[in-house]
Amino acid sequence: MDQTTAIILAVSLGIIMLGMGLSLVADDFKRIFLQPKAIIIGLVNQLILLPLFAFGLASLFPLQPEVAVGVMILAACPGGATSNLISHLAKADAALSVTLTAFSSFITILTIPFIVNFSLEQFLDQSNIIKLDILQTFLQILMIIIIPVSLGMLIRKRKENFALKMGKPVRIASALLLILVIIGIILKEKENLVSSFKEAGAIIILLNIIVMLIGYYSARTLKVTKKRSLSIAIESGIQNGTLGITVAVVLLQNSSFAIVSALYGVLMLFTAAGVVYIGIRQDNKNQS
Q: Looking at the predicted structure, is the pLDDT value of residue 166 above 90?
């Protein structure tokens, strides 16, 4: 992938994270002290169980090395703005969703380099192994995630009305940039796209469903409310595919690793639609 595309992708993710920051306030981070059980369960599901199940599926199925690494990159990513939108549409606890997204975004700047390096060692031939520089990767993710989020929060604190007005235009701009990048990846990797879809399509959906179910029922078992449990399920299964593409293209400089995250952006809509339907149906039952 050429340098121009990598820059566009990094800028796109930065804009997305800026938009997330515009929706956050300091109270979102205080929730860990007010509702620690729900947040801890959500983070354990997303940051520990999801990568473990992804590794299990990638090892169990006969995948191309690039596809297996792509699955692990996706699983290493935090939730994104999409998970917050899905929680809202599904009548789940949107505030909890935003809090989990914020915390996982900060934590994964530490975990992504280790998970990605582990998957590269496990699935690539020794002669083809490449490694992320831990410090450099930390700083790069810091630049394209944490700084934009922090800037968005600062703008929200200083100019709340402006931040609320800019939320929608920022989301639209980032979506358009992302679509251009995904189209570019598809065109560049079109020869590998069909085989990758056959290999990764079922695994992506299966991974989504398994982790969502575990997220929901683990929370319910520990007596978390249904709405919060649904948010935990969504955060566990809906990942920041944009970051996955960024890790592949910008950090690893290999667009073949990005195919899984690009496919995920489409396939995620099916599982998301199912979750929204279940959430709305559950909400209607509670009100009746």
A: no
